[in-house]
Amino acid sequence: MHLHRDIVAGLLFVAIGALALLVARGYPVGTAMRMGPGYFPVVLGWLLIALGALVGLRAARRRDWQPVAWSCKPLAWISLAILLFGFLMPRIGLVSALVAMFPVAAAAGREFRLREVVVLTLVMSAFAGGVFVYGLRLPYRLFPF
Amino acid sequence: MELAGNLALGFAVAFSAENLAYCFGGVALGTLIGVLPGIGPLTTIGLLFPLTFYLPPLPSLIMLSGIYYGAQYGGAITSILLNLPGETASAVTCLDGYPMARQGRGGAALAVSALSSFLAGCIGTLLIALAGPPLGEWALAFGPAEYFSLMLMGLVGSAVLTQGDAVKGLAMVVVGLLIGLVGTDVNSGMARYAFDVPELVDGIGFTVIAVGLFAVAEIVTNLERREPQAVFTGPIVGLMPGARDLARSFFPALRGTGVGAFFGLLPGTGPALSSFAAYMLEKKLARDPARFGKGAIEGVAAPEAANNAAAQASFIPTLTLGIPGTAVMTLMLGAMVMQGVTPGPQVMTANPALFWGIVASMWIGNLMLLVLNLPLVGVWVRLLRVPYRWLFPCIVMFCAIGNYSVNNNSVDVYLCAAVGVLGYVFAKLECEPAPLLLGYVLGPLMEEHLRRAMLLSRGDPSVFFTRPISLAFMLATLLVLVIMLKGLRLGVERRA
To answer: Which of B64, B113, B178, B295 minimizes the number of CB atoms within 10 Å of its CB?
Structure first.
């Protein structure tokens, strides 16, 4: 069954609101005069649930339901590339982390031309090393050694 | 005269060789990135502003306004030559700019776009210099109740008046407010929503949110579209517009400036609405409206002027009240806060060199655009032919390094990837990211003012309705909500 995207959006908002309330259980709410750290989060949580319900219920009356086409492949590769960089950067240095990151990021594209990716990786890694470490003088090492 | 003295101070500060160099660098970089297809001004600023962190506050903000103008102009280039608007505001420029380019008058369209932006920029700068101080003085009388109501108005306005669904916009504001809560509560010292992660105790960084929402999510959305349509590579002849073109564009640009300045002052409406309104106005006034859409130069001059005037005018609430009107201004505000500058009425009195320096540098950025970019149009056009499959890995690189370099911390990079996924999901569900960013920036301030107002009134919420200025903001908020609810009902009737 395909859900209208507004139903999905409404459910997502309700879920975020519920999560906010759940986590905020441990925060003292205080009084209206002396608000504790829990006051604002609780108000926002309920507000988000109400708005999410409104978005979802409004959409439930529509008939023009169209499936949302998710493109998981590019999303996965791009996220993976960023995570990989974050993991490798402090461990093996800027240029090495970029050399590892570029092919993963490029895999998100429609076509993957090996020679282009190799050239792009080498040129841009060297460029980034030059700009950030020599130009902006950020205290990063370039290579693991 | 005070106005002249203030502006003189600003220009004296901004005209140092160093600051001019940063302004120049910002304009060049902003245009360079902004002209790349599939990268709008928001993405450009989001990508480049980590570069300004390493500078002291004034040069950093000067460079940022250079980046802003460059990005804006880069967007105009892609709209006119490629029919590829980077943001809603420039969609209007496409209507007549692209037909002009197809007729071989792309150069003239680009020149007129820069010239009318410059005209609007001059008037806008003057407007800031005129309206800033009284507004700031007025705002000095604001107590916590007034600030809370003002922010509420700004948030509701941004949610309701942006394109797309108003209820979803409001929900996005609330999501942003919740994200803004992550970190240590200043009053009690309690860590909220930190899940025992030490990096989260300091809150989620502005770069993480801005880059994740506007750059990472944007790449994925672009990748799933087909390759951008064939690049229009016809020769650009006659860069300088003829006297006839100039004469025809002068008054439309002036009127566009007026329209833009008006909309820019209203929080939340911003450039998109104003460029559209300016275009419609010109079409109404034209002797022969049929020319519009087929390459009428007025159709380029008016919206481009309106766009820029609105952006300039929205600097006024951003700088004097600390309430940004548009997504771009939210980015600028976030950058100021990161620099330790809290925008608000006190900036003008506490740090006049900074305030007037920014005002002057905005004008210089605008001028730089004119002298730098017009001769270089040929170079920028060649950049349009860079295929996206080379570009996006480089954007990913800038996102990753930009986030890492803020705190030299991997957690920020991981969070950025997560925000990117969230941003993509929201984009697919047609939820606008701009209200979220505004909520995130204003959230902590809003909570603080709410708490203080309620403490002062001994827990009586009527304080927001008994103080006259606060009441006015509340009534305006209610008005916006009523308009929205009416729109909602009409929408239901249409569907039924």
So the answer is: B295
